[in-house]
Amino acid sequence: MEWQIVPFEQLDSLTLYQMLQLRVDVFVVEQNCPYPELDGKDTQPGVLHILLKKHDKILGYSRVLPPDVSYPGHPAIGRVCVSQTARRLGLGELLVAKAIAVASEQWPQLDLYISAQCYLQRFYESMGFAAASEPYLEDDIPHLKMIRPAG
């Protein structure tokens, strides 16, 4: 397996297609949640796309967003997903750990935010995040704002 961590402008067309296909497969089709997957954040300056690949196929994806793209003054991670065929292999933990490392390297002094689906609260707590809000609906799915302290 190999990691690819790149800004939007360095994504080749096949990788971009596979990345968007994975995100739509997971967040729109599997979760039966029609919502605007293309939210304008992918192309923002400083956004890094994290791809976990095996044999040129994307198994996992996440993006790291600089401060002020999703949260005022704070970086965030989002769109964390693993291909349905690659689940239960520990790739989610590897993917989130990589996203945390990338964000911490870029902004070591800033807390890291995520809007996590409520059913994943314990998973993100195991990765150092703590709930920072009451549950709220995002695209008709219960979410929590969670924060991972800097350092």
Summarize the entry for a quick read.
This protein is of the alpha+beta class and 151 residues long.
List the helices and strands and how they pair.
Elements: E1 2-6, H1 13-30, E2 48-54, E3 57-65, E4 76-82, H2 91-106, E5 112-117, H3 121-126, E6 130-131, E7 136-138, E8 141-148
Antiparallel strand pairs: 1-2, 2-3, 3-4, 5-8, 6-8, 7-8
* Backbone structural class: alpha+beta
Low-confidence stretches: none
**Average residue pLDDT:** 93
Sheet bearing the most strands, described? 4 strands, antiparallel
* Radius of gyration based on Cα positions: 14 Å
Describe the model.
This protein has 151 residues and is an alpha+beta fold. It is built from three helices and eight strands, in the order E-H-E-E-E-H-E-H-E-E-E. A four-stranded antiparallel β-sheet has the order 1-2-3-4, sandwiched between helices. Strands 5, 6, 7 and 8 form a four-stranded antiparallel β-sheet that branches. A hairpin with a 2-residue loop joins strand 2 (48-54) and strand 3. It is globular.
Structural key phrases:
151 residues, alpha+beta, four-stranded antiparallel β-sheet, 31% strand
